[in-house]
Amino acid sequence: xxxxxxxxxVEALEKAMHVFWKKGYHATSMEDLVTAMGISRASLYDxxxxxxxxxxxxxxxxxxxxxxxxSRAVAASGNSPKAQLMAVLQTNLEETLADPDQRGCMMANxxxxxxxxxxxxxxxxxxxxxxxxAFFEKLLRAGQEQGEFRPDFDPGVAATFLLNYVHGMxxxxxxxxxxxxxxxxxxxxxxxxxx
Amino acid sequence: xxxxxxxxxVEALEKAMHVFWKKGYHATSMEDLVTAMGISRASLYDxxxxxxxxxxxxxxxxxxxxxxxxSRAVAASGNSPKAQLMAVLQTNLEETLADPDQRGCMMANxxxxxxxxxxxxxxxxxxxxxxxxAFFEKLLRAGQEQGEFRPDFDPGVAATFLLNYVHGMxxxxxxxxxxxxxxxxxxxxxxxxxx
DNA sequence: CTCATTTTGGAACAATTGTTCTGAAATGAG
DNA sequence: CTCATTTCAGAACAATTGTTCCAAAATGAG
Lengths: 195, 195
Fold this sequence. Notes:
homodimer; mainly alpha; elongated
């Protein structure tokens, strides 16, 4: 056998994720990544492949962390679908507002920067969008059945509506907007669907 | 006197705008710009300054074209504030959906890519956001007074809500989404504010 | 036509890009 | 300990980046 790695693989990947998250793909250089990850060029290429592969791995990591965060918000919100949905949306907004670097959402950033330039990123973003939409739709339908939401809208359409809104929040939040107006805007978005 | 320019200054700028719009700032090279604009390097630097200045000029051009488009949509919609608002929103969506390159909105792209990396772009985006918000707020307030919108929401908050939604539409539209669901999602967004 | 002035194309620039290579150091099973 | 195997640091690579420079061509007022 041979020597074992001197660094934690996912720990270094997380550091790369934060650089990509903040600067995007093209503005991030391998130099940036090497210094941020604290490993050598050789180790980087050996472990993660080239820049694009590292970026995709970082994006996957972001997605999984994001999903876990959503699950936690749901779990902490009792049985009401509306309360669960509201918790997910508010958690997303509050985390975005709390970020001192105002990086927004890495997935939305990736979509804006790369969706039409890179087929892999586009497909990954589409997959994420479908998953989030399905998640919203499930909660909306359950909320309608429990009488928390108006029965006269299509849950699929409303899910698209919320998906668009969340993406917008995350882009606009990169310009240091009024936090309270953002909170009230989100409340208004959900109110339009409520009884 | 001396020789006169062999190209139209705003025509070439418009070509640069389309390149930046599609590829973003960092992924666009001066080589790309020189070939797209059909002028020489020397003419480019002489007329527009460096890459950053050219980008800012292209962004300003986009903004002015966008404003003119909104004004046209309002002018063609009679006296109803709600109809005017709907026309603006729908025009934006339809134009985004119709773009074969799916480039979204250049302002949203600029915000996503550069707002936290470049102070100038951030301020410009903030200025645009304020202007659009004020425009929405004016229409919403007028619509409330005419009884077209519910009186129980704050026009400023609703303007923020719509602003976020429009930004989201434009990001999501870069992933080739279902056009009809996008249309119905927009209708639902306005419906939540309506009587 | 003259000539000062400007534009223009392309060569040239230094700096940075993403990636590969090399050789030495470190490791752990036998 | 042995040694095949892997990690690692940094030099080196070719390509591309944004920008400047220069000489030649073009222009229009006098």
